[in-house]
Amino acid sequence: MMPMTLEQAPSLQDLLNGASSRLGINQYVKGAGLPRPLKSLYITRFKNLTELFLSSRPEMICILPSCAFPLNKGEQIFPLSLSRKFLKARPSKSACIAIAGAKKIPDFLIHAVSNADTHLFSSIYDEYLLESRLTGLFREKIEGETSLSGGLISLHGSGILILGEHGSGKTTCALELVKRGYHWVADDVVFAKRKNDGFIYGRSWKSDFPLLEIKDRGIVRVQDVLIPSAIEEESKIDFFVELVQGTGTDQGKEGDNPLKILDILETPIPGISLPVSGDLLTMATQLDHSIQTFRCMRKEQ
């Protein structure tokens, strides 16, 4: 369950707004209660309709697999007796019913909730992935938290998020920059949170036992590699650099790199893309130059 204060309580419409692609939604039916604030939230997977009937929790998002609905010649069927039972059961109490791994919402279900507050949608994702994505989405919207795949370093209070595919050199560049006066904050997974000042802060996903992965050494404790003064527990995220494979017209010299925007928890973070090169020391130098340029630009604003 995700409890919420009155000030936090969003509506289901607020939570699902703009999330169709992320949740794999291919059909939805808006219930009358979509704008109603949610005081608490349960995201629950059910194996079948019987389990759904037996549930009595309010403010629930119910996830059902498409196999919960029998098929006859490729069409979903639903016995009349069960349909009547369904009409008297959960729909009016559930905030939302999601059909996982489905191309469409069963017609009987649309009819069953036609006069209820319940929101319906079908998703291309299976019930496990859908549950994970819903949980992550609501954690972002309600708690202002998310996790990012990348590394985080800081310089004089400015946090720089380093993004890129596995093996692109994120950790190697970060460690090289630490040698040049930067501070290490996180490797591989960055836990990001929006605080009351409106800024996004990042830290290691396991701050009490931070780890990093070094090529040819594997996963090691940060304290075994870096001195304590080179490690920061948390930093504000001000800028990002994405390490990309190959080169293009917009990825050459520093001046040719257009500024990009990365949305983190509905907060725009500026950044650029840099090409991955075989010489990681040169790439670290380019990364340092990009960061210093950004810091100068921000001071001038």
TrEMBL record:
Q: Does the keyword Kinase apply?
A: yes
Which keywords does UniProt give here? Kinase, Transferase
What molecular function terms (GO) are annotated for this protein?
ATP binding; phosphorelay sensor kinase activity
Domain of life, per lineage:
Bacteria
A Pfam family annotated for this UniProt entry: Hpr_kinase_C
Record-linked InterPro entries: Hpr_kin/Pase_C (IPR011104), P-loop_NTPase (IPR027417)
> The HPr kinase/phosphorylase C-terminal domain covers which part of the protein?
144-277
Gene Ontology biological-process annotations: regulation of carbohydrate metabolic process
The name of this protein is Hpr(Ser) kinase/phosphatase
Q: Which organism is it from?
A: Syntrophus gentianae
